[in-house]
TrEMBL record:
InterPro entries: Oaf, Oaf_C, OAF_N. Residues 30-179 form the Out at first protein BRICHOS-like domain. Belongs to the OAF family. Pfam families: OAF_C, OAF_N. This is Out at first protein homolog. Residues 203-271 form the Out at first C-terminal domain. Transmembrane segments: none annotated.
Amino acid sequence: MFASCICAASVRTLTRLCALVLVVAVGLGSELRVRVRLSDGLVTEEVLEADNERDSISLEFKQGDGTLITFVADFKQDVKIFRALILGELERGQNQYQALCFISRLNRNEIIPSESMARLRQKNPQAIRLAEERRGLEQLTMSVAVNLSRALQLSSHIHNMCSEAREAIYTRESDVKHWLDKGVDGSIFEGLPQTTEVPSFQACHSTKDLWQPCLCTYSLRLEWYPCLLKYCRSRDTTGKGSTYKCGIKSCSKGYHFTYYVPQKQLCLWNEET
């Protein structure tokens, strides 16, 4: 449990509770480092940063296999970006690492606002945090490629986040329709071959030829992030009631992406074991 609260003197129990976890420290910066346990049992450090000026939040951590996962929530544009920097298999002709970017709409109540994130502070930085709510796995079919050089109007974060991915930036058709309705230029997007149009496409894990096109999948999980604000009630000396922010709720959520690749060589983690 985390708290970003200025506890009223009359609410002593809540005050003691807040002292055990996180407290507000306005003006001391916007970076928060949190130790979390991954699904494989390993402990990693998440770095969460809030940028009030750009109205965005970033979250970054390294998985047990060395993959660097970065998530950005752009509240100005209602866009979220996932980036994975995956260590390559040099002995199999891959580069030192492979970059993937997945972009989709940011919905309400997915994560707390940037101004609230900027105020979170940790009282015990050595504690290993566990999310209060484990949200369901979200399945996303990423059937559209995003042109990096034209993606600025979609989100100013895409160029910095996805420049290393370049040819591996994906989004969903339903999100594209939403953005087109909002006036985003359609030249940003390019449709990819679909499973229904090309029934001969196989999943990459069952494709033997490294140079054949196939359907790749990639999964990741954000193990801990502040997903909702909590509100408490208090009364003044006259008995008048009021509400105030007294903490956050933490969540964990998994994402499973399916997308087309022109060759299995770009999806070696999908091999059968």
